[in-house]
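Data deposition worksheet. Section B asks for the primary sequence of the deposited chain exactly as it was used as input, without tags or linkers unless they were present during the calculation. Section C holds the resulting structure in C-alpha cell form. Section D is free text for depositor observations; keep each observation to a single sentence. Incomplete worksheets are returned to the depositor.
Section A, Depositor: J.P.
Section B:
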Amino acid sequence: VPPSEIIKNSTYYGVESYVSVNRSVRPKDIKVAEKWCMEPCFITSFYEEIAQRFEDFVVRPDDVWVVSFPKCGTTWTQEMVWQICNGIDYEGAMKELLGDRFPFLEFGCILSRNWGKIDKITHADQMSSPRLIKSHMPAHLLPRQIWTVRPKLIYVARNAKDSAVSLYHHYRNLHRSECTFGNFMEAFLQDKTIYSPYHTHIIDFWRMRHENNILFITYEDMKKDLPNVIEKTTEFLGKSLTKEQVQSLADHLSFSTFSKNTSVNMHEVFGHIDKVVGSSKPDDEYNFVRKGVAGGFKDDMTPELIKRFNKWSEDEAKKWNCDEELKEIFMFSKKIKY
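Section C:
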C-alpha cells in the first residue's frame, strides 16, 4: 500500500493531516533517557498548537499519571487509580465525569475542530493537588518535568492485536473514520495510526519498570486477577485498602458494571459528536467500554492477519532486543480468551 494511502487510512472526521514528532537530541540531564528508543511519534498536526505548552507543563511531586498507548485499558486503570486515591468513593465519582476529575492532557489535539476547542492543559494547571492526569504520549515526549520531578506514574500495556482492533472501533465510532477494517490494520502495521509506533511506546516503560516512581501493569493481568493488580497499585500509591474494599473495587471495575458507568463511558461526548455530525455512530451497539476481553482479536482477525501481527511483533522484539516476557505482552499467544 503506498505511504500516501496508509496515512489516508489514519484520517478521521476533521483530522486530515499528521506530523511525526521527536526530540532533536536525547536529554543528557535525564538519567532514564538512556533507556528511551526515541522513535518519532505519529500524531495529528493539531499537536503543533500545543507542543510547547505540553512540553513545559508544570508537574507537581504529588501528581499521579496514567500513561499508555491508546486502547490498552487506560480508562479502566484511571477509574481504579481514582478510587484508590479517593478512599473508594463511588458516589463522588458518579457526580463528575472521569475526563474532568482525571484530565487527558493532550485531548484537544486529537479532536476535530468542529467539536470546539478543548484545553485540558489549562484545566489540569488549575486543578488543586493531588492531581490525577492521563496521557498517551510516549516517554520522550511527555512533559519534561515528569523526569525531573518524578511523580508516581502507572503505565498500562496491552497486546498489539487487541489494541489494534479496539482502536479501529474507536476510530470508526467516536472519530467517525470511514476506513475499512483491513485498511486500518495495514495502517497499524505500518505504525501510521495515532500515537504510533506501538512497540517502542511500551518498550520504553518496560525498560523503566524498576524505577521507584513507575508501576508497569498490563490489561491482561487486570483481566486475569484484578484484585491482585488493585493491591499492587494500592501499595505503589502508598494507600491502604481492606480486603473487602479490594473486592468491592474489583466488582465496581468488572465489565458488566463498568460498561454501564455513565461517568466513564463517554455517553455525553458521543451525544455531542452526533449533534455536530448530524448522525449517530455507525455501530449502534458500540460502547466506549466495548468488550472487556483479553484475546478478543480472534473474533475479528483472520488467521493470516494474526500471523502478520505476530511476525511484526517478533521482528520488533528482535530489533529492540526484548526479553521473552515483553514479547509475550506484545503477542498474547495464549489459545484462550478471558
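Section D:
Residues 3-331 form a domain with the Rossmann fold fold (CATH 3.40.50.300).
The chain has a mean pLDDT of 90.
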